[in-house]
User: What shape does this take?
Amino acid sequence: MKILAIGAHPDDIEIFMYGFLSVCLKRGDNIYTMIATDGSAGNVLKTKNLKLIREKESLKGLSKLSKPEFLGFPDGKLSLSSEISEIIKSKLKIFKPDLIVTHSKEDYHPDHRALSENVFNAAGFQFPILYCDTLMGVNFLPDYFIDITKYFENKKNAILMHKSQNPKKFVEAIKLQNSFRACQCNYELGNYVEAYKFENRFPFSDISSLIPHNIKIKSYYKNQKKSLI
Ligand SMILES: [Zn+2]
Assistant: This one.
């Protein structure tokens, strides 16, 4: 299968989608990645040539998964536009992905929401879409849970490649969030899970055959001594 992940900013794929993509790579999928904006607004350290620095950080962050394509839209200014949708549509015609992974329409960040809407319009009824979790899971009710425990160390190191963004705070946040999602599946502390939901529209009312299924059911009653709750 061909999986195409599209993130709004240079570190989003690492923060929100890295584990899922690692599981897909392991099952033999081809992984493609695109980054919509140039990251020039995330100037935490007041650095010159931030765009270039962030491209290099992305290349390092995603080196185990794929070489990202940079669309170069200005950071902080993404909007719902037919021009952006058409550019994404032209890329989809080239990649022909079996599944697109991107941000949720309910995301907290305006660039993430705008990208999500543009991808939705570009995908039409040709390509199914899977939405990644929002930061801290706000307004996000998942359909699928993916055990990423084996890949969490790689995910952490990938996020840490984004040195210009004070990445430790994102590592701490995502550690909590992926632990919480694991806890929802009754996994013990020290396990990590990413959560996803799909865009339910014709003709993709069931895309479960495209999603890796690696969650082991841990019944609460059988697992009471080990259970966190
Ligand atoms: Zn972002």
Q: What stands out?
A: The mean pLDDT is 95. Strands lie at 2-7, 30-37, 69-73, 99-102, 129-132, 144-147, 193-198. The first helix runs from residue 12 to 26.
